[in-house]
Specification:
Blueprint: H1 26-48, H2 57-68, H3 79-92, H4 112-124, H5 135-152, E1 160-164, H6 167-182, E2 186-190, H7 195-203, E3 210-212, H8 221-231, E4 238-243, H9 255-265, E5 268-272, E6 297-301, E7 313-317, H10 331-334, H11 336-340, H12 359-393, E8 398-400, E9 408-413, H13 418-431, E10 437-441, E11 444-450, H14 458-476
Parallel strand pairs: 2-3, 2-4, 4-5, 5-6
Antiparallel strand pairs: 1-7, 6-7, 8-9, 9-11, 10-11
Length: 482
Amino acid sequence: MPRHAHPKGPTAMPTPPPPLAGTTTGPTALRPLIDTVLTALHDGAHRRDGPLPAGGPDAVTPRIRTATHPLIPDHGTGPHHALRTLVTALTEGAADPADPLCTAHLHTPPLALATAADLAASALNPSMDSWDQAPAASALEADTTAALAAEIYPHQPTPDALITTGGTEANQLALLLARERNGPVRTICATTAHHSITRATWLLGLPAPVVIPAPTGVMDLAALDEALTRLHSPHRALLVTATAGTTDTGRIDPLADIADLCATHGAELHIDAAYGGPLLFSPTHRGKLHGLDRAHSVTLDLHKLGWQPAPASILAVPHRHHLDPLHHQAPYLNADDDTEAGLPDLLGRSLRTTRRPDALKIAVTLQALGRTGIADLVDRTLTTAHHLADLIAETPTLDLYDRPTISTVLFRPTDADDTTVATIRRTLLTRGQAVLGRAHTRDRLWLKATLLNPHTTPDHLHTLLDLVNQLANDLAEGNTPR
């Protein structure tokens, strides 16, 4: 046979590559896969049968490893088997924020419509670092961020916002912009500020923050005034970072009074409203954010009190030009002649390069629900938190920390020590019965319920408190929980 001759007879056809999610054929390929995923989500939730899996790490970790072994086989198991196996196992082992007894963190149950929009974003896969990768998505993002910024700064002609991965990135960007405006700015925050403020100063090479006491749960105004007076210098810029919705208690700093002090002392103001910012949509509760529009920058997370799949966060500024320091050039993404020819320059919209079109799910939610629909979700959630506080206050075996400002409720069994409180929380986790957080304030450890589920009913709240009371009784009688 000649050297390059092909053997006679039938030859095996090469296996085609797996289908893609895009173009006109993508939806046809996706439809049966999505059906498999939905079935796996359903089956996994039934197997879990609660807010999180029972047994703790010693049970969860081996189960997920068994389900996925080998994770990288020599020959693939096929799309439906892999989806069914991994999605079922992940769901069975998930802490489900949609369960009304999963209340530990600012971990929201995402709306189905926002999740569906996120699927479309994944299928289209725009990359938000150049217009030619995201023609429509870049326009949608610009309109969505401008609309959200206008909610925060209604009296400014050109407010704008950047989409970020969360409050941590947004707070870091706020400090970066303050540094670029003013040089090595000195940050002032309260003891209740989010940990990302201190971390941002470290990452940016700024001095460590000056920390103001918060004896009532919010920034002490007299202490702030003293610090601003002491630190004032024509050679030093000051940035006060206030909080609208603290992580531990959900308190809101006195924003207008803080803005007044900043104006008096020539300091700038950043407000971390990652938690409380969406109160703006509620006519009933937006007054709690009075003074928000006086900040030089504002962080707002919609994957907290906005019911979006993470990430969905923004950093808003009152004037578009405040974002100019973020401009960056990479000739293959935003060449000068392309920009001059009218192609939008997207690199200054983030410190990240490749990033998802997170504006889509936000825009879908805003349009689908409107102001009244979002306000209803906010109001329902805060009403539920107040109902929980009422139940605790009426229960003689439980102590209530305080009335909730947003939707965080702290409580503990009466006369229990901190060890007992911690044991109750861990036992509920290990049993898979409830997910409660913890907060240390007023020199005591408290159980923390962060209510974000608008479907939570009074029966769910009664069940939660009954579980805590029963465990407290068992521990008081010397019974070791299992």
